[in-house]
Amino acid sequence: MHFVVCIKQVPDSAQIRVHPVTNTIMRQGVPTIINPYDLFSLEEALRWRDKVGGEVTVLTMGPPMAADSLRKALTIGADRAVLLTDRFFAGSDTLATSFALSAALQKISDTFGKIDIVFCGKQTIDGDTAQVGPGIAKRLNLEQITYVSAVNEVNGDNGTVTLERRSEGGVQVLKTNLPAMITMLEGSNTVRRGRIDDALRAARAQIVTWSAKDAGIEDVTKCGLRGSPTVVKKVFAPTPRAEKAALVELGETPRDSAEALIEAIFAKTPKIEDDLVKLASGF
Amino acid sequence: MPAYKAPLRDMRYALYDVMGYDDLTKLPGYEDFDRDTVDAVLEEAAKLCEEVLAPLNSSGDAEGCHYENGVVRTPKGFKEAYDTFRDGGWTSLACAPQYGGQGMPVSVNALVEEMICSSNLSFGMYPGLSHGAYKALHAFGSKDLQDAYLPKMVDGTWSGTMCMTEPHCGTDLGQMRTKAVPQEDGSFRLTGTKIFISAGEHDLTENIVHLVLAKIPGGPKGTKGVSLFLVPKFLPDAQGRPGERNGVRCGSIEHKMGIKASSTCVMNFDDAKGFLVGEEHKGMKAMFTMMNTARLGVGVQGLGLAEASYQGAVAYAKDRLQGRALSGAKFLEKAADPIIVHPDVRRMLLTQRAYIEGCRALGMWTAKSIDTYRMHPDPAERTKADDFVAVITPVIKAFFTDMGFEATNIGVQVFGGHGYIRDNGMEQFVRDARITQIYEGANGIQGLDLIGRKMAAHAGRYLRTVFHPISEYVEANKAKPELADFVGPLQKAFGRLQQATMHVARASMARPDEAGAASTDYLRLFALTVLAFMWARMAEISLPHADSDPFHKAKVMTARFYMERLLPQTGALFSTISAGSKTMMAFEEAAF
Q1: Which pLDDT tens digit goes with each residue over A205-263?
Q2: Count of CA atoms in the C-beta half-sphere (13 A) of B203
Q3: Residue A193 to residue B84, Cβ atoms within 8 A
Q4: Which residue from B minimizes the CA distance to A203?
Q5: B93 partner at 20 to 30 Å CA-CA among A155, A245, B236, B370?
Q6: CA of A79: how far to CAs of A66, B84, B583, in Å?
Q7: pLDDT of residue A67
């Protein structure tokens, strides 16, 4: 089976700083990592490859230095890495990104074998949109299952996948046809440790590098800034709220505590009782 | 517990910038190990050490090993950690590709070893001993023995030991009593007792391969009659799997001051089947191949423990609020200033740091020489590299471990009472460090090795591999004003070392006790001077970047600290060396 995992190289948010004037992220000198959510998808793909056989290809779009992240994915155990890089891709929003990635996925399918499952991260830690995976699913007409907490079965014989999806109020157990696009929830598995021979293989691996043209994209106006209808109007840091939380000391009994709390509320907003009564009389 | 973070930036600096790693990738066999490859290995090693080995350090110390009826159980979690270690391929890092190894340069392996020692020295003993046994077998074993044992030792399914010490002989192996009686099939039967055998028995691997020194009856007396044998716990069957149980058993384990999770065993050989490794009566030579590597490895243990202690001490010094700075409060918003504001705390931290980073650089110079010796096509280059390793080995073993003990002690001092109690993990580093000054040749013996064997050998040829680079460096750089603060002190210390060398050489020719009286101080003087050379070079490398990069700025400042506050010890050492042996040797034995 052929599993493809889309990953993104992101700045390590634990070490990030925001420019005090422009409010943009200061990327300089900040180490990059694989988007942590993507790792759960990579691990799930590797597990199923180990179980049912096949290959795991990792794909990313980004500047040439994004190859570092692909090598890390190879170290963790992926078999092949594809880097989609071109100046036309600069400034892509989620619409343009899913367009470019879909083209690359099609090319991967044509070149290295038909894709059974595309895994994407649930979201990224820098953009947080959670739109690229679904965008790909729509464009490539894949069954779309997001927020997956467990993949129970991948059946190559009848071309189905059975999995558990976290939804409001419970867990859905779903079965659907392949090919599919899956995004894994964080904590759904434990990412494996790289083996030394994988690390050596990764360091020496040839990363398959494609430009827009290589990926078969003819209409570059759908890529990058030109293909991105999203406009950032303004970036700002939220102003801290003026009101401060206040501590209410616990009384000896729950009743004492509750009374102390009510007293504190009345002290702060003496009219609250009248307001509430007025509000209630309206019903 | 102090959280260990592998000092990757400093390791890369020592490897790439100071040591000049790229030279090694030009050697045949190392072409594939470019920086990207090395970085990937170091990063993965760091993760393994930080996430798997370090969390077991304290619990392993508290629990120790368990002995029952000849069976040794390692502390909770060690088996799983070893499986992870082995599955990741880490036992094979520096082994030969023909037996499944990765063939990684020794330099890179040394950095990985440092990380292992920082995070969990007791754990590191098991693969460490295996690697020593691997090396001896790889260098001296017959093809049949190598084919039967090396692949499993390389992939970590089987482990190894080195069995030398007996109850009545440690340093003086000529007194050995373990016997090896030749059999008709070419094998031997070994009988005797070995003590202090690290990893002699444990539950981490399915078989244990002991390399044992023993005497064949009727052979020459003393160390000239010692041969080396391979004695497996289980004799391999026809398929190469562990078969018949051999007559080697663990009689008990020692209860020790430190490295408690490493099993230190009494091994009883009772008519155990063994196979000769190398030639009859040439066992000491084979064993010394292992010993030299092991001595460098023990030096790295001292370095690793010092690094772990330093990291703990720095974190605590920044966090612990106590009193105010002498020059007035620095953190008014806090109840008190963190103790890092105090000059004496800074003295302690910088002492640790200057020793650690200096030793790391010297370690890399040495590792590069080992790699050069292993791989260089030019025999002259190989000889030069080997000469350097010969002279620096005792220095690294003794100085790195003395430094490790000093530095870990400082770590406790920074913590105050909180360092003395067990909860914070700082006292464990001291206890673990203590053995490194003793095993693989006590540090006193290293001093004798340096003065007695290495200094005089080939009319000072070994010594020149250290002295010439230093004098050339001083000559080339002494006129540069920007380096004056570094090259000046180096030149002065080097002068003392040269004088002390002449003095000791002359005096000991007349009275052999003079060499013994000077040896420990001489070794320290030697080490401090070589470290000054390392610091001068690091200052030179970092100066151009000091304004733009805090890492390089800290390097230059640490170099300054070393020259001003640590190197002056050489003056006192020079005086004690000059004092000679008289007061010690004239002291009547009865008066002690």
Answers
A1: 999 999 999 999 999 899 998 899 998 888 787 887 777 777 888 888 999 989 888 88
A2: 17
A3: yes
A4: B37
A5: B236
A6: 17, 21, 71
A7: 94
CA distance linking residue B261 with residue B408, whole number of Å: 19
Over the stretch B130-175, which tens digit does the pLDDT of each residue have? 999 999 999 999 999 999 999 999 999 999 999 999 999 888 888 9
Residue A167 lies inside a defined structural domain of this protein? yes
Provide the CA A10 distance to its chain's centre, in angstroms. 11
Chains A & B: contacts with CB separation below 8 Å: 46
Residue A279 has pLDDT above 90, yes or no: no
Contact status of B52 with chain A (Cβ, < 8 Å): yes
Contact A202 B84 (CB under 8 A): no
Out of A71, A193, A204, closest to residue B47 by CB: A193
B68 belongs to the catalytic site? no
Residue B50 token pair = 């930080």
Which residue in chain B is spatially nearest to A199 when comparing CA positions? B40
CA nearest to B88 within chain A? A195
Residues of A in contact with B50 (CB under 8 A): none
> What was the ipTM of the complex prediction?
0.72
Hey, are the CB atoms on A193 and B93 less than 8 Å from each other?
Answer: no
pLDDT for A232: 82
Distance CA B240, CA B158 (A): 12
Question: Which has the closest alpha carbon to B139: B277, B282, B281, B297?
Answer: B277
Place of tokens 């307001």: A275
Tell me if A251 is assigned to some domain: yes
Tell me the C-alpha distance between B294 and B306, whole Å. Answer: 18
Same domain, A126 and A256: no
* Measured CA distances, B164 to B234, B275, B440, B441, B545 (Å): 20, 16, 10, 12, 50
Q: Are residues A161 and A259 located together in one domain of the fold?
A: no
**What DSSP state is assigned to residue B166?**
B
pLDDT tens by residue, B384-429: 999 999 999 999 999 999 999 999 999 999 999 999 999 999 999 9
Tokens 């299952």 identify what position? A145
> Taking CB atoms and an 8 Å cutoff, what residues of chain B touch A50?
none
Mutate to test the interface with B, among A193, A195, A197 (most CBs of B within 10 A): A193
pLDDT digits (tens, 9 = 90+) for B324-349: 999 999 999 999 999 999 999 999 99
Containing structural domain, residue A283: 240-283
Q: A47 falls in which pLDDT band (50, 70, 90)? A: very high
- Whether residue A107 sits in one domain with residue A10: yes
Domains of chain A: total: 2
Nearest Cα residue to B46 out of B304, B349, B354, B316: B304
In sequence order, which ranges of chain A are alpha helices (DSSP H)? 36-52, 67-76, 94-112, 132-140, 196-204, 254-268, 272-281
